[in-house]
Amino acid sequence: MTQTIETPATGTATTAGARAHAREQHGRTAETMRFVPATSAPARLTDGLPDGVRPTWAESLAFGRYTTMTLARGTRIRLADTAGDACVHTLLYRAGALHERLNVADTVKVPWQAYPGAGHPLLSDAGRLMATIVADTSNRHDSLTGATTLAGNTAKYGAGTAHSTSRPPANCSPSVH
Fold first, then answer.
1. pTM score, two decimals?
2. Residue 172 covered by a domain
């Protein structure tokens, strides 16, 4: 059996076509992309930065995507939820010793707080300080369950705040032993 694939003569099938297409993309932005230089990032990513602070890295990520980079000691990361109801899953590894990584159990257990905020340490599995939350504008982080919304929790559990009483979900039937 022979399979024939037709390739158009125009577009990106040739080097010249690919070059022309790439040049057409100059200056365009997408919902998710890295911005190089970081100062070219749209205002939705840089709003709220203190005066005189310029980002060295700016990137927007879509649901289910990831990014990676090595950070120098003292580097600050700003995570901004530009659309609402985001949940960031963070993996921290010690540079040069990838066997040492963020340990959420110790991060919650040592300061005895499942809702991290400003000043909260992020600890490694060796008990070392890997990072510290230096500022927090949402105060709604949950180390154990991730992102939820007040409306979603109220609809599902009958109450939506962090320390409210709740009823079992409608599809949950109690069992007796």
1. 0.62
2. no
